[in-house]
Design goal:
The protein is an alpha+beta fold. The protein folds into 3 domains: 294 residues, Rossmann fold, CATH 3.40.50.300; 100 residues, 3-Layer(aba) Sandwich (Rossmann fold); 139 residues, Peptide chain release factor 3, domain III (Alpha-Beta Plaits), CATH 3.30.70. 26% of the residues lie in helices and 27% in strands. The chain contains 15 helices and 33 strands. It has an 8-stranded antiparallel sheet with strand order 18-17-23-14-15-22-19-20. Strands 28-25-27-26-30-31-29-32 form an 8-stranded antiparallel sheet. β17 and β18 form a beta hairpin. α12 crosses α13. The longest helix has 17 residues. About 4% of the residues have low confidence. The structure holds guanosine-5',3'-tetraphosphate. The site of guanosine-5',3'-tetraphosphate has 17 residues, from α2. The site of guanosine-5',3'-tetraphosphate (G4P) has 17 residues, from α2.
Length: 564
């Protein structure tokens, strides 16, 4: 089959996730991106839709009670706008090796992967990042880099994906922008390169200066929350500029810019695309300020889908006509009356067509993909065709496993999705010991689905089952689902561990390692040795006191057939 449009469709795709700490403004920014993309006419509808869904759906009780969404999803929309590259006057910002968008008339097709961030933070949030080509790191200007951002950043780092920083809430008093740059470097270990720069912060925000075009976008304040705004711009070289922003702010801006030009990192596309340098933007999502210039530049600078590495075959280019994709998330139907699940697939190469017959890696058989769904901004829609970078929801009668590859033609396997270290641990057991069999079946099923991980301590002298999760709410999900789907009530006993590390290499048997008294030796579901720690200090000590001990924060996922 010949698809002349494939290359153009790949070039215009941008698939990314927004990583942030709760309350930094992710919902607001997402909504504004949809607004500028024309996918919604009035901001506020994403939040409203969330609320409506909670009111009407038969989704699990926990969700309803807490008013949050337990699972993440994807949103797709088209964006015609673009970056007028002729406006770039600064040599260092010229789009030399930036990927660009092949056909301007088509515009971009954007896929935003939602990374749940409140109490519903879970391993799914990390797994979603495996399907993204780049990330937007959203930071509250008053708070700087926060804990959850650090965790998500580390997963992006593992994959060396480009990370673009948006410093939000500039309409409010916040930290000094140089201090924020330092914070990003000291906490995350990545250098930043401001593309625009705020003028007059500390509660008197005047606007941002775009270093690439030498234009200042003036902040007018007021309530622009609901609709797109037309902003006034003035060139920094315009004689009226000092009067427009105030002489003292103008002088300070010139000083800051000089400092950035002389002492700051140059805008280096190779480093950005390799995830070694983060372009930095300032704005205010609620006020729609700085959102559009950010979006335009982000889309122009960041990359379209890139090749993915398949075992044995090596990288497969998205433009390859062979269709390939992989499953990165499986969402169980929380209604116990419906056992069906939704598997989220990321298209990696070729063209996906509805009803196509594909090879499926974990069953090593050919299957027909029924009822595929795509996630448009407003609704789930039935999908006819999809291209690399797109996310498709597949009806799953229980055949898909995380990391499964799906493809046409001869079999290929993409490297699997790793297990990420859980941070909350509970000893779990059935209330009624007669139900142990159902209990074990349920726990095994849920760990296969990726909802939890299980561990045990071989030396503890009695049989135990430790459940480990990335987000604490998953423990409630475990209890709820074991009861609802397997008829088993469980007892939970919290354990004090906060970190688990897989032992990659050890200089001597684990029980002869020099470890703090609170560190436990255990094994994962596949029988691989792990150490469980209560704090980071104990991890550091374990490495310092045992030369040759190599620990890992992630591990390969073993499929059920490999475990038996
Ligand atoms: P999240 O998804 O990252 O958790 O954050 P969300 O968008 O829900 O925003 C968290 C709070 O921060 C919201 O206030 C939101 O209005 C506010 N916010 C987001 N962007 C900006 C900004 O640019 N400037 C200022 N000043 N505030 C911002 P809230 O009071 O919790 O909710 P709401 O009543 O405003 O909806």
């Amino acid at each position: 089959m010949n698809h002349p449009e494939l290359a153009a469709e790949v070039a215009r795709r941008r698939t990314f996730a927004i990583i942030s700490h709760p309350d930094a403004g992710k919902t607001t920014l997402t909504e504004k991106l949809l607004l500028y993309g024309g996918a919604i006419r009035q901001a506020g509808s994403v939040k409203a839709r969330k609320a409506a869904r909670h009111a009407t759906s038969d989704w699990m009780e926990i969700e309803k009670q807490r008013g949050i969404s337990v699972t993440s999803s994807a949103m797709q929309f088209d964006y015609k706008g673009g970056f007028d590259q002729s406006q770039i006057v600064q040599e260092q910002f010229r789009l030399k090796n930036a990927p660009g968008c092949a056909d301007g008339s088509l515009g971009y097709r954007i896929n935003i992967l939602d990374t749940p961030g409140h109490q519903d933070f879970s391993e799914d949030t990390y797994r979603t990042l495996v399907a993204a080509d780049s990330a937007v790191m959203l930071i509250d200007n008053a708070k700087g880099v926060e804990e959850q951002t650090v965790k998500l950043f580390r997963v992006c780092r593992l994959r060396s994906i480009p990370i673009f920083t948006f410093i939000n809430k500039m309409d409010r008093t916040g930290r000094d922008p140089f201090e924020l740059m330092e914070d990003i470097e000291s906490v995350l270990g990545i250098r930043s390169c401001p593309v625009n720069w705020p003028i007059g912060i500390h509660g008197d925000f005047k606007g941002v200066y775009h270093r690439d075009t030498r234009l200042i976008e003036l902040y007018t304040g007021g309530d622009h929350g609901q609709a797109q705004v037309n902003v006034e711009t003035v060139s920094i070289d315009d004689p009226d500029c000092p009067a427009k922003i105030g002489q003292s702010y103008y002088d300070k801006l010139l000083e800051d810019i000089e400092l950035l030009d002389v002492a700051g990192d140059a805008f280096d596309m190779d480093k950005i695309l390799a995830g070694q340098l983060t372009p930095m933007f300032f704005g205010s999502a609620t006020n729609n300020f700085g959102v559009e210039p950010f979006l335009n530049r982000f889309l122009a600078y960041t990359r379209p889908p890139t090749p993915r590495v398949a075992e044995e075959l090596g990288p497969i280019a998205p433009g390859d006509e062979k269709f390939t994709g992989f499953i990165f998330k499986i969402q169980a139907n929380m209604n116990p009356a419906h056992r069906d699940r939704l598997a989220f697939m990321r298209v990696c190469s070729g063209v996906f067509e509805k009803g196509m017959t594909v090879w499926h890696s974990s069953s090593d058989s050919r299957i027909k993909l029924a009822q595929p769904q795509t996630f448009m901004a407003q609704e789930h829609e039935s999908v006819e065709t999809a291209y690399p970078g797109d996310i498709i929801g597949l009806f799953d009668p229980g055949i898909f496993r995380l990391g499964d590859t799906i493809c046409t033609g001869s079999p290929v396997r993409y490297s699997g999705i790793p297990l990420f270290a859980p941070e909350f641990f509970c000893r779990v057991s059935p209330e009624d010991s007669m139900k142990r069999k159902q209990f074990l079946k349920g726990v095994s099923q849920l760990s296969q689905e990726g909802a939890i991980q299980t561990f045990k301590r071989p030396n503890i002298g009695r049989e135990e089952m430790i459940a480990g999760v990335v987000g604490v709410l998953q423990m409630d999900v475990l209890e709820y689902r074991l009861k609802g789907e397997y008829g088993v009530n469980i007892t939970r006993e919290n354990l004090p561990f906060r970190f688990v590390r897989w032992v990659v290499e050890t200089p001597r048997p684990l029980d002869r390692l020099r470890l703090t008294s609170t560190t436990a030796i255990a094994e994962d579901r596949a029988g691989r040795p792990v150490l469980m720690f209560e704090n980071e200090w104990s991890i550091r000590l374990a490495c310092e006191n045992n030369e040759g001990l190599v620990l890992a924060e992630t591990a390969d996922r073993m499929n059920a057939d490999e475990l038996e």
